[in-house]
Amino acid sequence: MADRTLFERGMATRRSVLGDGHVNGVTARTSAFDEDFQAFITEGAWGSVWSRPGLTKRERSLITLALLAALGHDEEVAMHVRATANTGATPEDIKEALLHVAVYAGVPAANRAFRIAKDELAKRQEAGQ
Fold first, then answer.
1. Residue 2: its pLDDT value, please?
2. Counting beta carbons within 10 angstroms of the beta carbon of residue 111, is it exposed (0 to 12), middle (13 to 18) or buried (19 or more)?
3. What is the pLDDT of residue 25?
4. Quick check: 115 pLDDT over 80?
5. C-alpha–C-alpha distance, residues 77 and 8, integer Å
6. Which residue segment(s) compose the domain that 13 sits in?
7. What CATH number does residue 107 fall under?
8. What is the number of alpha carbons within 13 Å of residue 67 lying toward its C-beta?
9. Which of 13, 47, 70, 74 could form a disulfide with 6 if both were Cys (CB 3.0 to 4.6 A apart)?
10. Percent of the chain surpassing pLDDT 70
11. Cβ–Cβ under 8 Å, residues 46 and 11
12. Distance CA 54, CA 72 (A)
């Protein structure tokens, strides 16, 4: 059973970071099979962690990118590179975070993440954002 306050706070944060288009798409694709999972990540990741006051959204964005890159979660890396348009993290910030990935998680992980980030940033630039 979802905690409405935590869920609502999480959904607001999720929308502010990932954008309405992304969240609306996820919501539209949610089914009875994954609705509990969607509530879990909305409450846990977005309502509890991303909504905390201790770090800015920019800082959380960079930490998230580094962790996702280190773990090889390519689709999530792409999504969070796109989200930097909403968090204030710059391409220079992304580059610095991925350099840390190279040192602490390995060059192959960083190489893959740099490729993904370059592609996503190029798409953003082509779209005039």
1. 58
2. middle
3. 97
4. yes
5. 25
6. 1-52
7. 1.20.1290.10
8. 7
9. 47
10. 98
11. yes
12. 26
* Tokens found for residue 12: 């607001």
Residue owning tokens 């930490």: 63
Same domain, 6 and 61: no
Determine contact, residues 38/7, Cβ cutoff 8 Å: no
Residues 18 and 46 in one domain: yes
Question: Which two three-digit tokens encode residue 52?
Answer: 């905390």
Question: What's the pLDDT score for residue 4?
Answer: 83
Q: What is the pLDDT of residue 26?
A: 97
Tens digits of per-residue pLDDT, 43-79? 999 999 999 999 999 999 999 999 999 999 999 999 9
Start-end of H helices in the chain = 4-18, 20-29, 35-41, 57-71, 74-87, 91-105, 107-126
Count of CB atoms situated within 10 Å of the CB of 33 = 7
Q: How many Å apart are CA 129 and CA 123, to the nearest integer?
A: 9
